[in-house]
Amino acid sequence: MTTHAPAEPSPAIPKRKGRLRSHARRAVRSWQLYVLLAPAVLYIIVFKYWPMYGAQIAFRDYNPALGFAGSPWVGFEHFVRFVSSFQFGRLIENTLTVNALGLLIAFPVPIVLALVVNQLQSPRFKKFTQTVLYAPSFISVVVVVGMIFLLFSPRSGIVNNAITLFGGEPVFFMGSPDWFRPLYIGSDIWQNAGFSMIVYLAALTAIDPALHEAARVDGANKWQRIRHIDIPGIMPVITILFILAIGNLFNLGFEKVLLMQTDLNLPTSEVIQTYVYKIGLQQAQFSYSAAIGLFNSLINLVLLLTFNWVAKRAGQSTLW
What we know:
Layout: H1 12-29, H2 31-49, H3 67-70, H4 77-84, H5 87-106, H6 108-118, H7 123-134, H8 141-151, H9 158-165, H10 177-205, H11 209-217, H12 222-247, H13 254-260, H14 266-269, H15 272-282, H16 286-313
Helix pairs in contact: 4-16, 5-10, 6-10, 7-10, 8-13, 10-12, 12-16, 15-16
């Protein structure tokens, strides 16, 4: 009769236990850091991950009395209803047009501002310029929209007063569908370009000054140094921010769009976010509005993953 020796424990198990004990000891030694991290983690769990449980109402005929699990399952019925509705084409066109134009026009502005401000020689004037450009970021969206209504008022607005002074006819800017997009994008550049400029200025400060010194010795002028040193130096930051902007291509500032809307400019100002608000909260079609919001989020996710993959294939900096 043969006897078999007991199987020896795998050497990987003690190693794994040792790593776990090592991680636990480091966590205990650095418990203060985990205490500081806990509120942020709790916020993300409560306000970002836990609401995902409610996303299932997009696939149900939600009834508040029955709850999430008790409401009848309808599958993709709400998604098909949205894609088949007469509003679908207009909402997609309005949302994509405003964001695409904003990306093409507004995205390069802070880059140009940062390159120009970085070339200023006087430290005092440089700080003053940064403050002036950055200050609009602190103004509330409600105040900005109020300023737009006052400045472009057909009767007392300074813009229409100037038009009348030169012999033109007053223009009802806020009631014209054609003027909604220029006003939205222009005011967005004025309010947010300064904040993005700070990000690029921080990236410019990380460039080694020795590169500029060597370029000066070789006879390079300012434009050549900007083209061959500054722009390549901040290109990773530009790429990351561009990918993030693409990932929000179907997201607009809901508050600002809603505040700028009037009954007359709805043909161009009605976007997905405002439509979800009106359908979901004003008309209490919770499942339908949840399906539209989930559809919008999925499109943004696909765009983000696609452009991140394209940037990786092109050898540029990526999110992951």
